[in-house]
Every structure is written in C-alpha cells, then in structure tokens.
Design a protein that fits this description.
Two copies of one chain form a homodimer.
Chain A lengths: L6 E2 L12 E7 L3 E8 L15 E8 L1 E6 L4 E6 L2 E5 L5 E6 L5 E8 L8
Antiparallel strand pairs in A: 2-3, 3-9, 4-7, 4-9, 5-6, 5-8
C-alpha cells in the first residue's frame, strides 16, 4: 500500500467564497472528517443544526461565534479552541470573521448501525 | 444537557516534557481523538508502530519527520500537514523539533466490533 502525500489544511483556499466551503478530508464507516472554510458566513437567524451525529470541532484559524439553542448561549471561538457538540444539541454559526478566512476541522461521529439515538 | 466550555489545543502545554505527552481529548465507541506533544522526542531506531486502527493525523504546530517501513520513505511534516496512516502501515516518528513543542492531533479510528482487519 502506498502512503499518500500529506496535504495542508491551511492551503488550497478557494479565492472566492460565495458560500461556506465544505470539504470531506476522510470518510469512513461512521466517521467523516471535514474542513469548513467560512468568511463572514453564518446561519440565518432561526436556522439551527440538529444532527444525528456527535460533532467534535476545532477552530484552526480565524474567529467564530457558535450559538446554542438550549440553554441559550453564545460561545466565541478563537484559533485552537475545540469542543464537542453532542447529537441533537441545536446550534448555529452566529458569526465568523468577515475579512479573513476562518478554518474549522470537524469530526462527525455517526451512531453505529442499529444504534442510532 | 450542558455544553462544555471550549478548551484550547495550543494551551496547557506541560512545562517539562521528559516523555512525549499523550492526551485523550475524546473517547467514543470506536474513535479516539488525541493530542500529542513532542519536543525532540522520536521513536528508537527500530521501534515501529503497527496499529490495528487507522490513524488520521494533522500537525498543528512545529515540525516532524515521519518514517514509513515499506515502501521505505521519510516524510517531513509542517504545520497544517495532514495524512491518513492506514492500519498496519508500520511507521515511526523519526524526528521532531528540539527547541519548541510540536503539537499533533490524531484521530484513531478503530474497526467496528467483529469487523477487525
């Protein structure tokens, strides 16, 4: 088996970002590793993510505000900040830096088959 | 459910690092997210990792050389570089920066029960 050459998570940023940019870096049975690039993007006012999977995120560059529905709170994230968003915890991206790219690494951990919550 | 406060992956670095430092950030059914901090640490000359799990790594700070057994190769990793080390691909850390900390994020993806390769 050949080892693939490393890629760089801070490179290959699209020059234009009309939408938030989602890129799957690894897809396995019940895990997806994803890079997300934001530049001023945020969810609409009442647009909440409500996911079946746990999502562990680390902000690698930039700055963002993550809003939680219940209990209501807003969390500022700086470079290096990480946290787990458990399944079905409603959340939205409330704000990201407008003048430079914010880079997130997200690890989506899906329930095993037959084990979905 | 309460959302935990974010922690920072570049913070809480031990002041002394007599050994390489391993810290589990998240442990789920078949996934472990781990922070590794190296400072000049490397595997002994013939000390190879041969793991049952896939390991996806991203180097977040510092610099390291990763050596593969077959085909023999050495890969220099800089900040932001990521790659997948498939299960049973023998590898070792051949070198890390001596004067400052190298921080790795490792996602260990274990085979599902009954599905081990």
């Amino acid at each position: 088996m050949t080892i693939s050459t490393p890629k760089n998570i801070f490179s290959n940023i699209p020059t234009e970002l009309p939408e938030e940019f989602f890129e799957t870096l690894l897809q396995q049975d019940n895990i997806r590793i994803e890079r997300i690039i934001s530049k001023g993007h945020h969810n609409a006012a009442n647009d909440w993510y409500d996911q079946v999977q746990d999502e562990w995120i680390v902000l690698l560059q930039g700055q963002a505000k993550l809003e939680f529905y219940e209990p209501a709170s807003i969390q500022l994230l700086n470079s290096g900040d990480y946290l787990l968003i458990p399944a079905h915890i409603k959340h939205r991206v409330a704000w990201t830096l407008e003048n430079s790219e914010t880079i997130w690494l997200a690890i989506h951990i899906f329930p095993n088959a037959g084990n979905e919550g």
